[in-house]
Amino acid sequence: MSKVIAIWGAPNSGKTTFATKLARSIYDEYQATVVVVYADNETPTLPIIFPNYKKDDLCSVGVALAKTDIDRHEVVKQMVTIKDKQNFAFLGFIDGENKYTYPTFDATKVRSLYSVLSSLADYVIIDCTSSLKNPLSKVAVREADEVIRLSAPTLKSVSYLASQLPLYIDPMFRLEEHIEGICVTDEDLYMPIEEAKSHLHDVRFTIPYSQAVKQQMLDGNLYEVVNDKKFNDKFKAIVEKVV
Ligand SMILES: Nc1ncnc2c1ncn2[C@@H]1O[C@H](COP(=O)(O)OP(=O)(O)OP(=O)(O)O)[C@@H](O)[C@H]1O
Ligand SMILES: [Mg+2]
Q1: 121 with 148: CB under 8 angstroms?
Q2: pLDDT at 138
Q3: What pTM, to 2 d.p., does this model score?
Q4: 127 CA distance to ligand 2 centroid (A)?
Q5: What ranges do the domains of the chain cover?
Q6: Residue 193: which of 151, 153, 150 has the closest Cα?
Q7: Cα of 130 from ligand 2 centre, angstroms
Q8: Distances (CA, A) of 219 to 51, 132, 216, 226, 231
Q9: Cα 212 to Cα 228: distance, rounded to the nearest angstrom
Q10: Which among 150, 217, 238 is the best mutation to test ligand 1's pocket, defined by most ligand atoms within 8 Å of the CB?
Q11: Which residue owns the Cα nearest ligand 1 atom 24?
Q12: Which long-range contacts (CB under 8 A, 24 or more apart) does 187-190 make?
């Protein structure tokens, strides 16, 4: 049985980093087939995760979504893979694309995409945008088997969630079921983690800060295992808790 996990939360709270690290961790620990979907079509994520790939090596999930019906072969064709890593793939948007690049797609088509991905992979990890105007994110938050909601210990995260969560009070968004986590995205965050927690509902885990992880994002190898034992040990415990 395939499991769909949506990563949602405040802007800049470490969603993309967490989604990528979670995917790699599941891939290694469970010897599972894993697909990551980067939903963002306002700041396309593939060029950020794979900055060292040639432009022609990156393809777009938008092409698969533009077809009248979601076609399994087309979806596979649009997957970005890593050398020597079978059964580990990434889907997303590429440089220069935006919401007008492809015909609009609705929730039914997104559902159909996720259903095809579930038939292909043991785990489908969806890196959602903070705003659920993005249909890939909206369907994921409403229908994934699990939703992980991140915030950074910053006033900006607290302010964002205080403003936006009321918009998603409808039970279809299942706010009460989300697994809440804090991600320490900066070394010198001024807001104490305990204070941040008091603004949130029920924080289940804290992702520690890692300079090496930050560097991986800059170097374009975030999907590789990081050389930071403290981070890896903590992260493994988080994965066991949430998967
Ligand atoms: N555990 C961590 N340790 C160190 N730096 C981190 C960690 N998690 C995230 N970061 C850094 O925090 C910044 C934001 O991370 P990321 O892009 O993953 O957030 P996001 O929630 O996806 O942002 P957006 O809302 O723009 O999509 C990046 O510079 C990233 O390298
Ligand atoms: Mg992101």
Answers
A1: no
A2: 98
A3: 0.97
A4: 7
A5: 3-238
A6: 153
A7: 8
A8: 8, 29, 5, 12, 18
A9: 7
A10: 217
A11: 12
A12: 187/211, 189/152, 189/153, 189/154, 190/154
- Compute, in angstroms, the gap from residue 174 CA to the centroid of ligand 1: 25
| 150 CA closest ligand 1 atom index | 21
Q: Which residue among 12, 127, 206, 207 is best mutated to probe the pocket of ligand 1, counting the most ligand atoms within 8 A of its Cβ?
A: 12
Q: Which of 21, 24, 19 is nearest to 5 (CA)?
A: 19
Dist. CA 151–CA 173, nearest whole Å? 17
Residue found by looking up tokens 């010198």 in the block:
188
The CB of 207 under 6 Å from ligand 1? The reply is yes
CATH number corresponding to 3-238 = 3.40.50.300
pLDDT tens digits, one per residue of 196-211 = 777 788 899 999 999 9
> Among all chains, which residue has been given the structure tokens 């306002």?
42
CB of residue 149 inside a 6 A radius of ligand 1? no
Cα separation, 167 vs 87, whole angstroms: 37
| Number of the ligand 1 atom closest to the C-alpha atom of 20 | 18
Task: List phi, psi (to 5°) of 125.
Answer: -105, 125
Distance 12 CA to ligand 2 centre (A): 7
> Does ligand 1 lie within 6 Å of residue 183's CB atom?
yes
Tokens of 207: 């992702």
pLDDT tens for each residue of 127-147: 999 999 999 999 999 999 999
